Q: What sequence folds into this?
């Protein structure tokens, strides 16, 4: 749907099937190149090269875009595709306005990279899930702006990254602070490991670390300890919280959102992740009512 330059994409199930030998590496389930006030919401995307891509060429604005309530799973790298869940991309010389972009309450699993961000204007990233990816969240950018190198700017809160094969978070830039922003807190990870986090900027040589070292560098100081979040079935993509003892319940911080992935209201402090815990989960199905049985 297009209205006055606005793109609204919603309520789609997009499943790609490889039927021919010809494969296009530029294979996005949904892609937006430039524009303002776009909304991408409530889509299920499977078996694409990248699920959702925001792209800006040189001097092309891409601002005030919202990506929310989407599921991206099982992306691929056929034909050189990026194999990423949700990403922002731009030409390295692209300096036009990219303010006001927000990504919240999305679920990405079974991708090489869950999320990748490159914009030099602040991106807000809240209450998303990355599961079973090689890298859960990748943030990197370096471009020379006259007399200095500028990096990416991201604010992340209340996100869950679990089951990463390599890193939960990978951050890299050739810039010094304050020419980049990595504002990162109240996020949850599982499991821990000596190489689950990577950080590299102009002042600090790149290093791999566990969660304790990651926190000592000023990241996730208010996040819960690394423990199992007790999701119902993360392998099958069910990221509802199964137990009232989950460390993600009421462990987030207020980011100005009023409902979760399913539209449930947020009461008090938000849970970390995409779903608010609403009580003990039951494995017993609810019996149907109003049935009639006829005999012939």
A:
């Amino acid at each position: 749907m297009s209205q006055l330059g606005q793109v609204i994409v919603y309520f789609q199930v997009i499943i790609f099937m490889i039927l021919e030998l010809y494969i296009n590496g530029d294979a996005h389930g949904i892609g937006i190149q430039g524009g303002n006030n776009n909304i991408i919401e409530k889509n299920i995307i499977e078996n694409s090269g990248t699920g959702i891509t925001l792209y800006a060429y040189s001097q092309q604005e891409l601002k005030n875009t919202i990506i929310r309530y989407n599921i991206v799973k099982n992306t691929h790298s056929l034909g050189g595709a990026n194999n990423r869940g949700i990403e922002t991309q731009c030409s390295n010389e692209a300096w036009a306005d990219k303010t006001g972009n927000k990504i919240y309450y999305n679920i990405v699993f079974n991708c090489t990279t869950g999320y990748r961000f490159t914009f030099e204007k602040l991106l807000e990233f809240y209450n998303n899930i990355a599961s079973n990816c090689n890298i859960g969240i990748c943030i990197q950018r370096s471009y020379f702006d006259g007399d200095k190198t500028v990096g990416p700017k991201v604010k992340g809160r209340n996100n869950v990254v679990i089951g990463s094969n390599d890193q939960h978070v990978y951050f890299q830039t050739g810039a010094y602070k304050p020419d980049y922003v990595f504002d990162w807190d109240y996020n949850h990870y599982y499991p821990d490991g000596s190489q689950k986090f990577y950080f590299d900027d102009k002042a600090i040589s790149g290093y791999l670390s566990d969660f304790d070292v990651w926190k000592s560098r000023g990241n996730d100081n208010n996040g819960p300890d690394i423990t199992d979040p007790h999701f119902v079935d993360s392998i099958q993509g069910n990221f509802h919280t199964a137990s009232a003892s989950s460390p993600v319940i009421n462990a987030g911080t207020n980011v100005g959102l009023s409902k979760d992935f399913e539209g449930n209201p947020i009461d008090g402090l938000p849970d970390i992740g995409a779903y608010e815990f609403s009580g003990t989960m039951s494995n017993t199905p609810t019996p149907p009512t109003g049935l009639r049985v006829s005999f012939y």
